[in-house]
Design the sequence.
């Protein structure tokens, strides 16, 4: 996996004491072996949005991963340059989903960590 230079620390709006760390990475698929045909279209790459939610009082972390495959014909290659922070509509939608997750993240049963 190739890490892009986008990483940050953010606070969760539902619990200001909880910190989250985010990383955006790019996974490129291995080449298709000679003489074989993939059963479905292979993505050019998959953007991976990783979020680590720290729960220090429980001595644990929660990881949220959002995978965004970019299949030829389903996105505009000119509109995406992840290292330059040009995300394109698919990754922008995933970032919005991640934000909604962080805004609504709430532990309802702390005994799960007990």
Sequence:
């Amino acid at each position: 996996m190739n890490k892009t230079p986008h990483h940050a620390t953010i606070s969760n709006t539902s619990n200001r004491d909880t910190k989250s760390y985010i990383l955006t990475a790019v996974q490129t698929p291995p080449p298709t072996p000679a003489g074989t045909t993939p059963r479905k279209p292979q993505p050019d790459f998959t953007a991976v949005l990783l979020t680590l939610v720290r729960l220090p009082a429980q001595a644990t972390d929660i990881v949220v991963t959002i995978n965004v495959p970019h299949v030829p014909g389903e996105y505009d290659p000119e509109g995406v340059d992840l290292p330059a922070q040009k995300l394109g509509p698919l990754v922008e939608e995933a970032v919005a989903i991640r934000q909604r997750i962080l805004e609504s993240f709430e532990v309802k049963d702390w005994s799960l960590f007990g």
